[in-house]
Structures
1.
Amino acid sequence: MSSNTVISARDLSLTFQTGDGPVHALKDVSLEVEKGDFVSFIGPSGCGKTTFLRCMADLEHPTGGSLTVNGASAEEARKSRAYGYVFQAAGLYPWRTIGGNIRLPLEIMGYARDDQEARVKRVLELVDLAGFERKYPWQLSGGMQQRASIARALAFDADLLLMDEPFGALDEIVRDHLNEQLLHLWDRTNKTICFVTHSIPEAVYLSTKIVVMSPRPGRITDVIESTLPRVRPLDIRETPEFLDIAHRVREGLRAGHSDDL
Amino acid sequence: MMRNLLPVLTIVATLLALWYAAAVALNAQWERDQAARAGETLTLPALITDTWSQDKPKLPAPHQVAVEIWNTTGAMVLEGRGFSKRSLFYHSWITFSATALGFVLGTALGVALAIGIVYNRTMDMSVMPWVIASQTIPILAIAPMIIVVLNAVGISGLLPKAMISMYLSFFPVVVGMVKGLRSPTPMQLDQMRTWNASASQTFWRLRLPSSLPYLFTSLKVGMAASLVGAIVGELPTGAVAGLGARLLAGSYYGQTIQIWSALIMAATLAAVLVGLIGLIQRITLKRMGMA
């Protein structure tokens, strides 16, 4: 494990005890995420990708194996605010302006007032929402709200970004646009991003590494290192290289399902 | 608002018409007895006008009540006796002060209990049944006990009545606030955890603002309950002052018009107070984006 490793999971397991018997949400999951990686987790529902992300965020507690974030436990990472988490819904507070919503984590973490103002301005520019500070969430479209939510996750300069299907509720056109923006942002800020999705094109387009997972029990079927260049225009989705990787992802997904068929 | 005016006026007019008709029906027996004793026959127009102007009618007509209210409010203010002991303003003020104090105490108690229930597992499991049980005991039975006990300890006047108001108004606040404080979604609470927010930060920045719509609804119910409590509290003490006292005095001396005027005044007071809370609710929630 090099000093460049941000997340290291070794035989990570999480079993939920339910009335119907144990549910193996994660079983022996091992993965290393290096600094600056853009890792996508893809798989059908129930494969454990969200559970894995939540374990990294210390929102779930594994029942077996080990998980370190920035070399320390997930709980310490959460307490030191080492990551920003973006949920599937924007979750902005209607009683605060966009600026107020972005300031919320900064207020909680105790940043000075001027610092807060400067940061809000900066991250709004990063997500292309400059000038929207005084607007209220209900005045923004779904895509803009989600961008504001991403801005909020960027405000306190965490080096790690955990995103749980952030564009899942948006339409294709807005999604394409936001994918492009996210990639651009990643290039500019050099953060490590873990991204859960169940869209194959999105996973292949965005990532440097694609982790294919399958359910029952939740496990990693394949880890694909992407050969695509770092700078990617949207047209790259029609190149043969892209389609090859997408094919490999699809094979991985099918393999995970083969016990059902 | 203008859209609502015509239907509301129609209903008010209908109610008044029904009231007048009922007054004739209920007061007619006495008129017939009077006529029989005097050996006269009663024509319908005479019956109607007489039933609407009796001294101690079974059911006073609306204009009789209106005149009585005017005599004890407006007319007294014009004479400079606005706060004399016979003025309805004076009595309303007495009842209002007990209501207001009881309402404030009840809200404070309700919010405190709600916070305890939401944040403490023991309280969550044990307090609610007691709170509900407390409301099933008839207030008319407890009120005299509370007043006598407090008087014995030397506390009299405003506070015992406020205690009864508090007793009735804290319940809706507890129920509403528990629901409101628990209204944030698991996702929003997880979001707070990812920022490592303390319980106090989560309370002030998420739970409390989210609970305001529920709080206002509870406050409206609590205000009405508080007024009832204040009036009930005025009944046992041998009726000295307040709208409840006025109701009681009227019933002792058979002054039905006095009873009705106190009744209408109490209803008006309730409408004004609840309407005030409604106004504050609308302004606040609008500024919060209907939080």
2.
Amino acid sequence: MPAKSTLKNAFPVILLTVVVTVCVSLLTYVDSLTRERISAQEDEAVKAMLDEMFPDMSRYDFQNEIYIIYSDGEQIGYAFLAVGKGYGGDINILVGLNDDTTLKGITIVSQEETPGLGTRITEPSFTDQFAGLDVNQVALSRDGGRIDAITGSTISSSAVVEAVRETALEKIKQIEEEK
Amino acid sequence: MAKFGKEFAKGIILANPVFVLALGLCPTLAISTSIDNALGMTLGVLIVLLGSNIIIALIRNFVPNITRIPIFIVIIATLVTVVNLIFHAYLPATYEALGIYLPLIVVNCIILGRAEAFASKNPVASSIADALGITVGFMLALLMISFIRQVLGTGGLSVFGHDLFSLPGLKDHPIAIFTLPYGAFLVIGLLMGLFRRTGVMKSE
Amino acid sequence: MSNLVAIFLGMVLINNFILVRFLGLCPFFGVSKQLGSAISMGVAVTFVMAIASLATWLIRNYILIPLDIEYMNIVIFILVIATLVQIIELFIKKTNLGLYFSFGIYLPLITTNCAVLGITLINATQNYSLSSSLVAALGGGLGFTLVLAMMSGIREKLELANTPKSMKGLPIAFIIAALLGLAFVGFSGII
């Protein structure tokens, strides 16, 4: 009977469609369950880093890719992410600015540099150097700036310095324009 | 019941996925830098392998040959995505540590291999036993390799933030090369050779 | 431009797919006994990696992200790859039967090659542009082929050597991979 053989031929496709539909529904469901929690975690992580950089922070705003930091109603600074091209991949850096656009400090968010050498960019002995500097002073000492590179990892050090300076210049320009 | 036991035990030594079948090597070697990572990966593999073996065993008599592989792939990929999302939301540290190797469970030959070779031809109960056995075998292999790499590479053992022990000489001068890929290849090669030499597993 | 060069060299040498990222190991140990088949496999995998990177980049940027369904990427990527491999298999079967037979089962197995899904996931997590994705895929594939070729050359010679019985086959292959990996660490200074 023609109807029976058509059903038989169509069955593989029907089954595949059913399986795909069930799977997609399941995924959509699980995504809706987890989505909020995942973005909440990312917010937590950012807040923790900003708290550490600005101990007096009471709250922050995020507008146009820049975090604006407040302490009891008063604006005390800014923060933004910079990305450097390191040895082993991207180096993600959180850069903090004081209200007068001098540097508050930097925190290395993530990196994949060589253990023992490039990873030393996360040490305070390196990152503390950035605090209080004017943007134009953010360069390696060998290039006339105020940052001493880490011996044995000039590439990692230089990647951080370049990223911080270039992104800071950009963001400061953006802040000035918005004033 | 005896059959269940037999299928289960088979996955641990005779058909150990890592040392004998040499399946699923990609995540094994990448993840075996610490016990924490090993356990995290095992959990992911357990959920996916158990889930896929059960589902495929359930539908094995309905699936036409032509669409077999695409359907298996869709099911496994869905399970992996679910695990990925759940880990991201509820086990963020493990999620970060496993990185892209968690989604790569999809192409882990163990899962598709067992689906093809076993679950599509055997009843649900045996397939469950198979999944559990293979996962235990996987876990043991992973733990063995991670233990060696972590102890030699970092000088001590630290599980989920609890320091278990440190070897005095090694802690100050760990043989860091074991945490690098070189160490992974070395350890698994030597272990395999050792198992074959002592007759625990068969040589070629 | 220097960015693309950095990505390319990074993929081929510094973060080599087999020796550093552990991607593409199954064919590595299966096919790498003869130089000829190793190179053919390498070229085939590179080709699939490149096309898969293109297809998945388009799907991710024009469908997944706009519709906010990025979590579907694992399922969609692997289906795209499976389809791609099927098409290539049919194409080779029609145009070069000898090649088809010499690949044997390893051709459909490219679908489960961690390197292929791996490069699409790397492109996604690193948010690479289209050109970066393609360069990364070519670099990854080249690195894979390079190591596969080296490995097969060594193993061909090894057949004549006096390996202890328990180390024959896979164990010694792993040790060789360890040594190759060690040698490659020397590349990590070049960019």
